[in-house]
Records
---
Amino acid sequence: MAKGWLNSVKRGFTKEEALKEYLYFLADDSLILGQQLSKWCSNGPVLEQDIAIINTALDHIGRARLLFQEIARLEGKGTTEDSLVYFRDHLHFKNALLVEQPNGHWGDTITRSFLMDTFNFYLYDSLRTCEVNSIRTIAEKAIKEISYQAQWSAEWIVRLGDGTEESHTKIQESIDNLWMWSGELFENHPVFEILNEELPSFTSIKDLWLKKVGQVLKMGMLIMPSPELWMQTGGRFGIHSSQLGFILGEMQSLARSYPNATW
Amino acid sequence: MGTNVSLKDKFQAYVDAENKVEPKDWMPEKYRRTLIRQISQHAHSEIIGMQPEANWITRAPSLRAKLILLAKVQDEAGHGLYLYSAAETLGEPREKMIADLQSGKAKYSSIFNYPTPSWADMGTIGWLVDGAAIQNQVMLTRTSYGPYARAMVKICKEESFHQRQGYEIVMKLAQGTPEQRSMAQESLNRWWWPSLMMFGPSDDNSPNSEQSMQWKIKRKSNDTLRQEFIDKTVPQAEYLGLTIPDDNLKWNSERGHYDFGEIDWREFYEVIKGNGPCNKERIAHHKKST
């Protein structure tokens, strides 16, 4: 295999490790996106949208809790949802790089949510029929909120794209800037092959995603960049952008300052 | 009654008979203006009040605490929304109210001009600030203007939930490690007096109170509400083993109330005038977001 900057990451997993890894993908995506969206609280452009975006943050963090509780159960040895969130270092976070990209302006946040919500919609829809009970139950609950999120962010893409000249230019820039983080969502990973009888590979929803994203962008008079462009990678292997350190630094600061406290 | 009874007298009789005034009813212009001022001020307080708590959402020390805080601040946005709508029934557009907030013409509760440097403040705000607000708001569920009274019923339910959540945070700190305990005490020290100031000036220095009482917009005086709050809160602090920072605080069995020390009204008026530690920051943050 040709070597690049990810040459030393772990690529071999036991079946037990693979299941946990898959759960970390889901849990860390939800946690980090929820954490990022929660920063909009009291900063929304109008009161109604402040409330709407807080709703999506609540959904993501609520879903992350369910997923971390499941990981904690599998990990055992006194692991809790909070030890996983507050006392893990960046190398052990497995979220996609897209969700750790900065909030930027409203259009940047909407674009990041739109790309992710559309991915989550198809992923969780397929998880509803997967062979792992705990994940199926979580997916069944989550799909309702994810449907709402996907609709909300898609409507915003259309509103901004088909809005004023300024909003059109800005949202097209957001899409162009964030596009290189989208390919990682569908990249293959060694755990998918190990789990292929129980859980869907993320690669399997790529065509659905491309079709939906293309339709929405077209409705917003926006241009979809080519999916063949060079895409960033690393998050699923624990290799992150510089952003994640700041996100974790902020999120973990209080819990780590008083490691013996209960809150 | 004679046929020459003025509209104002009729209005007063209507209010005296404990009827609710509705948006399309005739009302004295001053009644309308007083309510617009009070309801919009209340709405602004909910909205500006989001900021000191929102600043801890990303650092909340557990996922459970993060969700509760996020949901609480979202409730405040919701309260702001009902209250702006209630004020709009009096003919004042939301854009105008927001413009007045941003220009400094409209006020909001001065308590939100204090900073929140500590996680313990998330507990203390819920316990004391929401507690003080409830004292006032329970009274307002019986206010004479119908839309305001009805908005208050819903808001009070959520606020009392917030107060319990705040008390829970303080309780966990008070029963936690020595560092957590001192975190709780330090936060109480800072918030106690500003919380007492929330009820406004003493009755003999409160220019709008008398007319508002007559119109049944307000049903209890500032000093009465403040005393009720103190009487209710002292035992809660004792239960937590925390000390209220007032050397003059003691039970007066003759009055059946706690006696308490003197409020620094100079600080109160300076913060209202715009000289609190966070006045500029709060308005700048609000302008930046809209």
---
Amino acid sequence: MARIGVLALQGDVSEHVRALERAGQEKVQVVEIRKSGQMEACGALVLPGGESTTIRRQLESFGLTQELKAAALGGKPILATCAGLVLVSQEVEGDSKVRPLGLMDIKISRNAFGPQRESFEADLQIKGLDQPYHAVFIRAPAIAQVGDGVEVLACVGGAVVAARQKNLLALAFHPELTKDPRIHQIFLKMLEA
Amino acid sequence: MELENLRFGTELLKRGFAKMQKGGVIMDVTTPEQAVIAEEAGAVAVMALHAVPADIRKMGGVARMAHPEIIEAIIEAVTIPVMAKARIGHFVEAQILEALGVDMVDESEVLTPADEFHIEKTKFTIPFVCGARNLGEACRRIKEGAAMIRTKGEAGTGDVSQAVLHMRMIHGQIRSLKGMDDLQLMKVAREIEADLDLVRECASMQRLPVVNFAAGGVATPADAALMMQLGADGVFVGSGIFKSENPQAMAGAIVEAVHHYDDAALLARVSKGLGAAMKGMDASTIPEAEALQNRGW
């Protein structure tokens, strides 16, 4: 059985836990990561939605930054959604409030679509999925620039909103808020590879 | 992707926004400088208002929505979500807050109510949070469109007892629904003046269908952790931060306390060196007519 850790410092943790359990059925065990030493026993990690400034600060204050970096470099599959996308990026455009972890060769823009009144739902064409995926964007970031080796998976207007680089799958939207399990299933497949 | 195919202001987006706040601290601020302190301390959002509840109590007079200039300056100063309070029933204040780009409106009993009716919140694109003392109130607000509930507590007192009372009340009432058949649920719905479908949902989920924060009297890291241990999804801190001796330290400590609410050793460590908490007042000494929690229905 694969063990998957959801970073549980702040944000919609329980939604990811449920989505993983739904997608993986009996085959996954999901644990919440709050303390140093817990990540090592996990085969894959999820960085949930929430406030990136808050989560970044808590990573630092509980000494989890290095462990997370090591897990990513060591090849553990990581699913990063919304605030998680901000954290894994190389650089945040025009904003010094979050120091990203630099795990993925992307430059992102926070709150790219504006305040909450501009938050939206949309049917996305995602590479690798036959049918459109109904995606929920909440004060979402967007990927402004991708480096070599980063595969773009989906766009809204001109903005990249989903991308993959090796073991990292990063999304500007929230697959954990809808019942469609396909994104979490793609992620679980990365574990098998 | 055609941009015109996007959908805005849905219930999923509103409740989803509230879910992103879970496990976080939302802090009352009255200036951009305070907003920056809150953000740096790790707040998940700030609540913009013209005076903190403790000062509103002291000043008397009519308490209204904050000045637009202040709200705009606060939005400009931080990247975390900015919420602002509108008077109960004052849907035009809420319209103005939405136009200013506020992320969430708190239809708040801390301000002077404008109507016996609450705002019809489903009509707005942005989400609302509302106060509640019990399950009936919480369900009525959710039915009107609230995407998030908070306990009313007794704002501006620094006395956590009323927030505890309201959190225990809501959770206790939800627990009592467990195992009831539909006829019994119908009876409860009628008694507490709540929508039956919502009561059914609470019974089966064993929680409110929206995020439920604690508010109204949280003044120390211990208070915040207490509310989390009692089952709150997160915490609002009003006067507790900027009426304390060292707001910066208090703000940071409350954030840590909420994230690690079940770790007593850590709570002991972060509770040190904070200086004096807000002085506050015993909520039970407030005459019935002056209690903010009795505003709204």
---
Amino acid sequence: MEMRAVYAECLAEMMEKDRHVCVLDADLAKASGTLALYKKFPKQMFDCGVAEQNMASIAAGLSSYGFKPYIESFTPFATRRICDQIAISISYAKQNVKVVGTDPGISAELNGGTHMSMEDIGVLRSIPGVVIFEPADAVQLRAAMPVINDYNGCVYIRLYRKELPDIFPADYKFDLFKADTVREGKDLSIFVSGFMTADALEAAKLLESEGINCEVINIHTIKPIDKEAVIASARKTGAVLTVENHNVIGGLHSAVVEALAEEKIPVCALGVEDRFGEVGKMPYLREALGLTVENIVAKARKAVSLK
Amino acid sequence: MSCDMKQICKDIRSDVVSCIGHLGVGHIGGCLSVVELLGVLYFEHMNIDPKNPKMAGRDRFVCSKGHAGPTVYSTLAKRGYFDRELLFTLNQGGTSLPSHCDMNLTTGIDMTTGSLGQGFSCAVGVALGAKLEDDGARVFALIGDGESQEGQIWEAAMFAAAKKLDNLIAFTDYNKLQIDGTVAEVNDIAPLGDKWAAFGWNVIDVENGNDCAQISEAITKAKANLGSGKPTMVILNTVKGCGVSFIEAMGAGNHNSPLSAEQTAAALAEIRGE
């Protein structure tokens, strides 16, 4: 099942239970998978048209009236385009608005560089009070949605739209502020978020055959990062690699390095090397921007060699 | 206009000058231009209860030109939301009265504003919320003329008309001045009424936006538009720095200006008619 379909199902369940849960679009309901909800919930779905700034501040106004709005768009338009509205109308004003950005990083594929957010986590991470969540699979997303809905404050959901392989078991228990260890190991800690979690696990298997035993920790919540889990794993293995579909500046790598600032542990980065995206399909983009399993393996070897 | 309203506005105007003068600097021009609007709204038109500031179904006021905070605070104090003495903590570290309105700090403030353009969209969201709750609340929103250069104002204008938010009554403080000069010179917004009408709003032009009777009459008309399916824009032709001749004479320079003890005393004397 596509991630956006899971997301829409969760929204429908929440809107059914609570008439104050509502969704605002900026002419991308179809892309977000929520267009069909307009018929079923006409008093909880609002299309603002192509006007993201207005959408964000209207959501803040609705929140001040007791509503629980979700605003949706492609990641660059849900974040960097409206970072002042998220900062002031939403977070500074302590409003309960959820921001949903779809097609993060290279997953924007054929929409190309203009629609590829390599900086969205960095932009939002520097705004006080914004929680940043990126699901790795449908199981995690489904478990997270009710928790995020109950959280009173701004949460950014960085949502890959298409189908992803399952990482987590059916009985998975979600804690918004606790990282998930998906593979235990002793030689290297790989911290990873989003769809690249599957790639990190594949790389860990390959590394096992070389005698490098990797721990893979899914950081679904990049802010506030589970510092305790990051430090504990890093101390255990003595070497760290971060893996992300985002600029290595400002995102998961930065968050992990900040958490480990007082530790004498090498931290290598696999991510987008401070450049814009470009048009193409995923296999091309993975190669072009270096987000491949082979590169994870190479960076992992380097991190271990720095011990 | 009742004698009472005249006195109320005199008191609000004095308090605006006093609290900005006490600090020594502030957004004096754009605060003085909206004194009559705030007085008329809070003393004649809004369904509010100062003893129950979070009353369900109350009318809301959103000061999108957030830098007019001192006028809102002076009005709220006069209306009994909090003690007048609090006004003299304006902009002091740790105060509950910051230069720009903050709903989480100040009793009676319904929306955090200050980043121009955003408060107006928030007000539109509040009006939508009130419609959905069907609780009879009206939303009054104040924007600046310089603020009207923000694209977000027009995004909100389009949405409010499209969603038929006739419980929204907005005001433009059309004092024709902004920080860098006259609005006409910097980036003209004229013809302002035509623009709002073209966006599908009822438009009411108030010739003297510092005249309580004219403002009150316009609000009465705007309230009658409930049920028309159209939001209302009341354009207040105001004077920036209104009521203090030397501040009026500063022109664009009065947006955020120092105010010495001597100037404060002279301004207060003029307001009191001494």
---
Amino acid sequence: MTTPRTPVSECRNGAPSGATPIRGEAAPLREAGQLTHTLGRPDFDVIAGWIEPGHRVLDLGCGDGTLLKHLIDTRGVRGVGVEIDDANILAAIRNGINVIQGNLERGLDEFADQAFDHVVLSRTLQTVRHTEGILREMLRIGREAVVSFPNFAYWKNLRSVLDGRMPVSEDLPYQWYDSPNVRFFTLLDFEALCTQTGLVIRERRVLDEAGKPVDSDDERELNFLGSLAVYRLSRVR
Amino acid sequence: MPGQSVGVVHSQRAHFCDPLTLRSGGVVPAYDLVYETYGTLNAAKSNAILVCHALSGHHHVAGHYADAPNNVGWWDNIVGPGRPLDTDKFFVVGVNNLGGCHGSTGPSSINPATGQPWGADFPIVAVSDWVETQARLADRLGIDAWAAVIGGSLGGMQALRWTISQPERVRNAVVIASAPKLSAQNIAFNDVARQAILTDPDFHGGNYYQHHTRPVRGLRLARMLGHITYLSDDQMGEKFGRELRNGSFAFDFDVEFEVESYLRYQGDKFAGYFDANTYLLMTKALDYFDPARLDGGDLVKAMARSHPDTGFLIASFTTDWRFTPARSKEIVAALLANGRNVSYAEIDLNFGHDSFLMDDAHYHAVVDAYLRNIKL
């Protein structure tokens, strides 16, 4: 018998356990977020900081278009989203966002080479099977790729596993049986893949569960302290 | 369905006496367009939506006639107060296209030069000709620019053509279950339909009116064939399966399977009111439609002719095998390549190509959401 657990997080605004599963690679968008983060998503604040006014932005798994709307309103970007879920497509259109219904796993043929300055994939990489394929597509379509994902090596996640249970947290708000996540990896894993596939990490922000930046000179310590990581990638330095 | 019907409507007629030279080179010296309007044109004349009809459609889009309460418009479920084409906000215009058989000038109209029905002499009309005549109707109504032009199937092609031919006059295009051009398979289906009509002994080279007959058998076959391609295999299976009307095989060629009964009924009904020459014209307009042709087949270049501020909603249906989602995505790709404002919805509905006429909550919500964001 499985009893739903409360998240290991002490965060009061944490997502409820047994969160509703989402279809495909749609990023979880939660209404109750960190009050200090205007969009309820600390990685959104990091991403917004990297995008310059007037840029062309493609948001893969854009959900209801919250990030794009924020970027359009505050940064004057030209934005397009890709989304698989019907309800999110409807919500994004309601938000006045240009949104294309599609499945990231099936490629992004409708987008031309280097059509965007930034291609964003927030909290979605871990739901995509073709990890290398999607990263390659992002940098075919865009000059830069911006990727955020939950770090499975975060100490609370590790503690949870040591206690014998799969982690449920602010950044991993699913039970093992209803999780859309299909790839389980850490900061160090991701960086090794970048090295292996020739992707250049231009910037990195590591956040704790409350969305506060964490820093350390020790990569292994950072891998231990970070709940969510945000990367800025390109083909060339 | 939420919202209300527009209720009692009436059709209107506009006469145009300037000759119109068509894409085919043919000339129509003067013509009538029959149309209907729903809602009220605002003072700025900025709230008008044009609904373009498909192969067998017409100007009677919504509502019903006072003397014919059962004659409900073909897209009534989407037009009216509180519906996606909200007549509390928009002034909606439906028009019977040139070459049609519901009151606008077409092959069954009298050719003033001969005093006889046009018949085979009615020139071939193209989608671009319809856009031109619709633009003249817009002039007549005092509409400089449509808030939106919307259509499904062949109607979607007109909406797309509007953005290329009259970029300044269309602020949004809603292109549903459509394609940037027909495939060889599409053309093949159309040709079989045409052959059914052309080889009917009652066709008389298109001048059957003078013979006081109509190529009913050919038209019926054409419609039966068309109908198969508008439905999905799954839907036909669910609706009819292999059900027999009398429970057992009769071992003859009469109607046995329910699906045969249905198709024959649809064919008979259609052949009873539709004009065969108009059917021929409409299928040719479909076949010829290819707005990228003048740009060497490059749809990206063709869509570059659209206005940078024009918004697009492209929608397709998962079970539509006549105009598949992949065809709609060709349009989407060309628009994205031009940096146009475009949204694309791939709607999971089980009714094949005909899905665009169905009353589905998600489908209508998508159209509603898009149109509600139009600033007047």
